[in-house]
């Protein structure tokens, strides 16, 4: 089994970013939604990106907007992967996918159906919990059964929504995602990462990944 990738989202400073990677994270999420308490200005985000080791990738998180706006901000910040929440047509995602790794984010509300992911063949898919006002970092878990069903409609599934060291093992067993995404579950306050919580979370993911490997048919 390929190791499950780990994304720590809502990082707001270089010290936390470096710590995430040193502890084993693969992806660092930088939030460009101005209404978020974890918002990063592009020039600050670029400093974080430039402080990252070469084995880590920064992900720019966007809510709505057009391709030109996203492209401009991503290039200014130096990120080569964009995560898109909100109303994004498949054509626009495909356009951006020619330049960036694109993660299309969906919330598991009543309007979402797993087969919706089929319209985004050039994108990875992130499944998150629904919240009326927030886009990520809600602390609420998503519908794991819906996330599991979405697997068959995408090339790469990232599970998000209310994950922490205590429940991520159960989430991985229930969904078998390619990656997991955590934000508020490793914080002492919005945008302030708890390094011990990150270490515990990553250890729990690795343990769950090993358990899945050993329990797989030979």
Structure description:
With 218 residues, the protein is of the alpha/beta class. Helices cover 34% and strands 21% of the residues. It has a single domain (5-215), classed as Aldolase class I (TIM Barrel, Alpha-Beta Barrel), CATH 3.20.20. The chain is built from 7 helices and 10 strands. The strands form 2 sheets. It has an 8-stranded parallel beta barrel, surrounded by 6 helices. The chain has a two-stranded antiparallel sheet with strand order 9-10. It has helices at residues 14-23, 42-51, 67-77, 90-97, 144-150, 168-175, 195-215; strands at residues 5-8, 27-31, 57-63, 81-85, 101-107, 124-128, 157-159, 179-182, 187-189, 192-193.
How many helices? The count is: 7
Q: Tell me the fraction of residues in β-strands, as a range.
A: 15-25%
Q: Radius of gyration from the CA trace?
A: 16 Å
Q: Looking at the structure, what is the overall shape? A: globular
Tell me the domain tally: 1
**What is the name of the CATH superfamily?**
Aldolase class I
**CATH architecture title:** Alpha-Beta Barrel
Number of strands: 10
Determine the fraction of residues in helical runs and give it as a percent range: 25-40%
CATH class: Alpha Beta
Low-confidence stretches: 214-218
Fold-level CATH name: TIM Barrel
Structural class: alpha/beta
Mean pLDDT: 92
What order do the strands of the largest sheet run in, or round the barrel if closed? Answer: 1-2-3-4-5-6-7-8
Order of helices and strands: EHEHEHEHEEHEHEEEH
């Amino acid at each position: 089994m390929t190791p499950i990738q780990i994304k720590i989202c809502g990082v707001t400073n270089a010290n936390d970013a470096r710590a995430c990677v040193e502890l084993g994270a693969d992806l660092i999420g930088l939030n460009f939604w101005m209404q978020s308490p974890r918002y990063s200005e592009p020039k600050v985000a670029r400093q974080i990106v430039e402080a990252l080791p070469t084995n880590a990738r920064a992900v720019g998180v966007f809510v709505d907007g057009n391709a030109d706006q996203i492209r401009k901000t991503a290039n200014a910040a130096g990120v080569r992967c964009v995560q898109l929440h909100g109303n994004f047509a498949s054509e626009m995602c495909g356009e951006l996918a020619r330049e960036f790794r694109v993660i299309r984010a969906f919330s598991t509300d009543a309007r979402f159906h797993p087969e919706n992911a089929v319209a985004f063949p050039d994108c990875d898919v992130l499944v998150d919990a629904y919240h009326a006002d927030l886009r990520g970092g809600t602390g609420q878990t998503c519908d794991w059964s819906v996330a599991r069903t979405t697997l068959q409609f995408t090339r790469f599934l990232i599970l998000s929504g209310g994950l922490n060291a205590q429940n991520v093992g159960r989430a991985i067993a229930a969904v078998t995602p390619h990656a997991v995404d955590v934000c508020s579950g490793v914080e002492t306050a919005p945008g302030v990462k708890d390094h011990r919580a990150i270490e515990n979370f990553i250890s729990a993911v690795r343990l769950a990944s090993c358990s899945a490997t050993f329990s797989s048919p030979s």
